[in-house]
TrEMBL record:
<dbReference type="InterPro" id="IPR045020">
    <property type="entry name" value="PRX_1cys"/>
</dbReference>
<protein>
    <submittedName>
        <fullName>Peroxiredoxin</fullName>
    </submittedName>
</protein>
<dbReference type="Pfam" id="PF10417">
    <property type="entry name" value="1-cysPrx_C"/>
</dbReference>
<dbReference type="Pfam" id="PF00578">
    <property type="entry name" value="AhpC-TSA"/>
</dbReference>
<dbReference type="InterPro" id="IPR024706">
    <property type="entry name" value="Peroxiredoxin_AhpC-typ"/>
</dbReference>
<keyword id="KW-0560">Oxidoreductase</keyword>
<keyword id="KW-0049">Antioxidant</keyword>
<keyword id="KW-0575">Peroxidase</keyword>
<dbReference type="InterPro" id="IPR013766">
    <property type="entry name" value="Thioredoxin_domain"/>
</dbReference>
<keyword id="KW-0676">Redox-active center</keyword>
<comment type="similarity">
    <text>Belongs to the peroxiredoxin family. AhpC/Prx1 subfamily.</text>
</comment>
<dbReference type="InterPro" id="IPR000866">
    <property type="entry name" value="AhpC/TSA"/>
</dbReference>
<feature type="domain" description="Thioredoxin">
    <location>
        <begin position="3"/>
        <end position="159"/>
    </location>
</feature>
<comment type="similarity">
    <text>Belongs to the peroxiredoxin family. Prx6 subfamily.</text>
</comment>
<dbReference type="InterPro" id="IPR019479">
    <property type="entry name" value="Peroxiredoxin_C"/>
</dbReference>
Length: 212
């Protein structure tokens, strides 16, 4: 099964380090980040899970829940969490799915057919409160994820969901944004963007970022 942007994130029920998870029920009205790991006790993933735990306040501010996945069992996860807490100076505060039967991995197409048939690829999904998949990123095993970029994308998605704007290259929260080309009515432009805008080209109009 191949998942594309805009698809409803597949629902599932699976064991985790925090007990049995019914995914859509667990998400509720929150945004979610689901990210996979090839196995427990892997060095790069140890740093990623520790950094995710340290971002608890940033995720909470944005209404985001994090959940990880590995095909190892709960008992292994719990031992790994002890290592993460010790080596990363944090406390893991989110569930790690124990996908020993590969149910979730198969739903989310996380087993590469040309690689090991049990190790999941390192994919990350951002899922909105309507349960739609809004971002998919797959990383190589040697490269740790950039969680600052994940937060930046969430900020962009939440902003552009509520305003008729898009975010330009290298945008950071607070920077100018792009007015969508379909918005042409001058009265509506003044109403939506009281600080005005500057037209670099008719199709490229920049305006101060609206309040999120």
């Amino acid at each position: 099964m191949s998942i594309r942007l805009g698809d409803i994130a597949p629902d599932f029920e699976q064991d985790s380090s925090a007990g049995r998870i019914r995914f859509h029920e667990w998400l509720g009205d929150s945004w979610g980040i689901l990210f996979s790991h090839p196995a427990d006790f892997t060095p790069v993933c140890t740093t990623e899970l520790g950094f995710t735990a340290k971002l608890k306040g940033e995720f909470a501010q944005r209404g985001v829940k994090a959940i990880a996945l590995s095909v190892d069992p709960v008992e292994s996860h719990l031992k790994w969490i002890e290592d993460i807490n010790e080596t990363q100076d944090t406390q893991v505060n989110f569930p790690i799915l124990a996908d020993a039967d590969r149910k979730v991995s198969d739903l989310y197409d996380l087993i590469h057919p040309n690689a090991n048939d049990t190790l999941t690829v390192r994919s990350l999904f951002i899922i909105d409160p309507a349960k739609k998949v809004r971002l998919i990123i797959t990383y190589p095993a040697s490269t740790g994820r950039n969680f600052h970029e994940i937060l930046r994308v969430i900020d962009s998605l939440q902003l552009t969901d509520h305003h008729k704007v898009a975010t330009p290259a290298n945008w950071q929260d607070g920077d100018e944004v792009v007015i969508v080309p379909s918005l042409k009515d001058e009265a509506e432009l003044q109403q939506r963007f009281p600080k005005g805008y500057r037209a670099v080209k008719p199709y490229l109009r920049l305006t101060p970022q609206p309040n999120r």
